[in-house]
């Protein structure tokens, strides 16, 4: 029985291939949704679960490689290309732009399933990362405006005295804001806060300067 915790999207204009792939996936307990064109796939509502996209290169409305390029900027499942007319430049282009595999028909069931498993594992990891970053971003939004000013100064390595001077506040006030930032961001150490700032891509516009003392 197919489970709903993962899915494979199939985009191939050959109905027999779509049916064969759907049956293969069903035999491995995986749900599949098949489309005959790129347009049908793009316009369809898709379950929000770990997934992969099994994509034929030659489609009636657009080349699969062009579809890969068009959807690259958004969140889309990792792609496993299948084609009856494989060539080295196409495979290189596909892999260079993030495809998990590029299989030439006829391919073995085991090769396809291995590629699908790798693609879904990759999607699970990406989804976990997005969820983690989303939680961090919400913590950042919970900071006060002043705390958001303090955070980049702290992670840049400025001493408390230097950061306080930058903001025109006392060292004591700076230290209070710093503790609040650490607490709200759930950072166990300064190094942890630096990693969080990097994941959130918070711009660091200052660098530690010599002179002065601080905590």
Any key phrases for this structure?
alpha/beta, 2 domains, disordered C terminus, 9 helices, 215 residues, single chain, Rossmann fold, Arc Repressor Mutant, subunit A, elongated
Question: Biggest β-sheet: count, sense, barrel?
Answer: 5 strands, parallel
Oligomer: single chain
Principal-axis shape: elongated
Provide the CATH topology of the largest domain. Rossmann fold
Just name the CATH architecture of the largest domain.
3-Layer(aba) Sandwich
Care to describe what's here?
By secondary structure, the protein is an alpha/beta fold. Strands 2-1-3-4-5 form a five-stranded parallel sheet, sandwiched between helices. The protein is elongated. α6 (145-155) packs across α8 (171-184), α6 (145-155) crosses α9 (190-199) and α7 packs across α8 (171-184). It folds into two domains: 7-130, 3-Layer(aba) Sandwich (Rossmann fold), CATH 3.40.50; 143-200, Winged helix-like DNA-binding domain superfamily/Winged helix DNA-binding domain (Arc Repressor Mutant, subunit A), CATH 1.10.10.10. It is built from nine helices and five strands. GO terms for molecular function: DNA binding. This is Two component transcriptional regulator, LuxR family. Keywords: DNA-binding, Phosphoprotein, Transcription, Transcription regulation.
């Amino acid at each position: 029985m197919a489970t709903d915790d993962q899915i494979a999207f199939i985009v191939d204009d050959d109905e027999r291939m779509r049916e064969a792939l759907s049956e293969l996936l069903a035999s491995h307990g995986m749900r599949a949704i098949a489309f005959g064109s790129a347009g049908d796939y793009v316009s369809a509502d898709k379950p929000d679960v770990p997934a992969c996209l099994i994509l034929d290169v030659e489609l009636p409305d657009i080349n699969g490689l062009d579809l890969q390029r068009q959807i690259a900027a958004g969140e889309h499942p990792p792609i496993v290309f299948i084609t009856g007319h494989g060539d080295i430049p196409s495979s290189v282009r596909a892999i260079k732009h993030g495809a998990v595999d590029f299989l030439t028909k006829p391919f073995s069931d085991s090769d396809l399933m291995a590629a699908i498993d790798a693609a879904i594992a990759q999607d699970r990891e990406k989804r976990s990362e997005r969820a983690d970053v989303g939680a961090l971003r919400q913590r950042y939004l919970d900071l006060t405006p002043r705390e958001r000013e303090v955070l980049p100064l702290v992670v840049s390595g400025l001493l408390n005295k230097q950061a306080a001077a930058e903001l025109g506040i006392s060292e004591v006030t700076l230290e209070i804001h710093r503790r609040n930032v650490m607490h709200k961001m759930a950072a166990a150490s300064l190094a942890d806060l630096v990693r969080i700032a990097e994941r959130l891509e918070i711009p660091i516009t200052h660098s530690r300067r010599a002179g002065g003392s601080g905590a």
